[in-house]
Amino acid sequence: MIDSHFAQKLKKTRRDLAITQQQLADRLHVSRKTVSGWETGRNRPDIDMLRQMARIYHLSLDELVSGAQVSEWQKVVNRAPISSVNRLTTTLLDIMLAILLIERFTQDTTHYNVFILIDWIFVFGVILRLLVSQWGLKLIHSVHSPVFLIGYALLIAVLLYSALTNLFTMGFVFQFVFVVVSLVGIINFVIIGRDVIIHRKLQ
């Protein structure tokens, strides 16, 4: 049996949002008896059910299970696979940063403002990359986070604007690299956006 403190937290969280057991059961596609069992400690929801409940309650999974004696739950959460969109975003950010870093140290120009621009963009990109690391996801929980999405959109906008307007007379090679990196970012951003829409429809 799950500890009574956690069962009570599930019950209190549902009641605080004025959701009945039947309403919750309907949204989770389970019986009211199943929800009642979770809230009395007779049985416990699996990790997928916890994720769905967290979305319904507008909480992170950590927030939903915190405060209870749930070391077992925390182990399950920590072992939960990172979503494919998170993995794709991590990989593409790594590629974007690698391209910028190589460009920074292999190209030569008399316009040093270009190097300053790349340095700032690189630092900002590293911050975004840290947000989708295992450590960063504990703060933002997902690439769906508004903090990450706004930051990512800003990075792409700066890259694209700089390349298309030739802001610092950067030269063709720098412009080409900026366009390529921004296009990779746009494709990734569209994939994340589509994933956000799909998740909202499932709620």
Offer a quick outline of the entry.
The chain has 203 residues and is mainly α.
List the topology elements.
Elements: H1 4-16, H2 21-28, H3 32-40, H4 47-56, H5 61-65, H6 71-79, H7 84-106, H8 112-131, H9 137-140, H10 146-165, H11 172-202
Helix pairs in contact: 2-3, 7-8, 7-11, 8-10, 10-11
Assembly type:
single chain
Ends apart, CA distance between termini: 28 Å
> Poorly predicted ranges (pLDDT <50, ≥5 residues)?
68-81
Given the helix and strand composition, which structural class is it?
mainly alpha
Q: Approximately what portion of the residues adopt beta-strand conformation? A: under 5%
Helix content: over 70%
Explain this structure to me?
The chain has 203 residues and is an all-alpha fold. Helices cover 75% and strands 0% of the residues. It is built from 11 helices and no strands. It has helices at residues 4-16, 21-28, 32-40, 47-56, 61-65, 71-79, 84-106, 112-131, 137-140, 146-165, 172-202. Helix 2 (21-28) packs across helix 3 (32-40) and helix 10 packs antiparallel against helix 11. The radius of gyration is 22 Å and the shape is elongated. Mean pLDDT is 83; it is low at 68-81.
Give keywords.
mainly alpha, 11 helices
